[in-house]
Specification:
Elements (H helix, E strand, L loop, with lengths): L8 E4 L5 H9 L4 E5 L11 H10 L5 E6 L4 H11 L3 E4 L5 H10 L4 E7 L4 H9 L5 E5 L19 H10 L4 E3 L8 H8 L3 E4 L4 E2 L2 E2 L1 H12 L3
Parallel strand pairs: 1-2, 1-8, 2-3, 3-4, 4-5, 5-6, 6-7, 7-8
Antiparallel strand pairs: 9-10
Length: about 220
């Protein structure tokens, strides 16, 4: 099926409170992101609050735990504390760790973030894709001494993202510098399964309801 004809899903990330999650869901979000401890970037909250928000979200809205852990044992323990329906791994993990996660967490979806920095990201993404349920293309810089693993507000090269999406056997989420004014252009360029936003719908550190509604309306309006 042509992805250009499918409705685009929307994930609103960096939920800080149950009220922010309610605002995002009321605006039409298909998923909300909950950020655990990170080396840098916006949005980390305590795991007890992640659990509280995750348990408050009604199905079928998905709840994503954003984890910077890179070993299966730590990710599994974190998931048991946070109780989300999806795990989003923002840093690179070794291939064997995916199988351990699958065995330990049946029914929990696994999403691997690929930080698009050049065409070398294509091979990285397509190598990992068969081991996860979806890829999420973002604009971090994990090679820095203090890693950037998301929430940068930067746009990456959508031509690379388009190539990954065209060749990936699993759905692709597009993130990185999206906002209400550029999300339709991004969708036209990449035709992702879903778009993901954090800083593009926040004002003064808080979820901006007007921006959130504008972003979701634009994303779901098609191209």
């Amino acid at each position: 099926m042509n992805p250009a004809t499918l409705p685009v899903r929307v994930k609103i990330c960096c939920m800080m409170t149950p009220e922010e999650a309610r605002i995002a869901i009321a605006a039409g979000a298909d998923a909300v992101g909950l950020v655990a401890k990170m080396p840098s970037g916006p949005g980390p909250i305590e795991e007890s609050l992640i659990e509280q928000i995750a348990l408050s979200v009604p199905p079928p809205v998905a709840t994503f735990l954003l984890t910077s852990a890179t070993k299966a044992a730590g990710i599994i323990a974190q998931h048991h504390r946070c109780k989300t329906s999806v795990i989003q791994m923002v840093d690179r993990i070794e291939g064997d760790e995916y199988a351990v996660l699958r065995d330990a967490l049946p029914g929990i979806r696994l999403v691997q973030v690929i930080h698009v920095q050049g065409r070398e990201s294509i091979d990285e993404a397509l190598t990992i894709a068969p081991q996860v349920d979806a890829l999420l293309l973002d604009s971090g810089r994990p090679q820095l001494s203090i890693k950037e693993l998301g929430g940068t507000g930067r746009v990456h090269d959508w031509r690379v993202s388009r190539c990954i999406r065209e060749n990936s056997p699993v759905p692709v989420f597009l993130a990185g510098g999206l906002n209400p004014t550029n999300v339709r252009e991004a969708i036209a360029a990449v035709h992702p399964f879903a778009v993901d936003v954090c800083s593009g719908v926040r004002s003064d550190g808080k979820l901006d309801e007007a921006k959130c509604r504008a972003f979701i309306a634009a994303a779901k309006a098609g191209v």
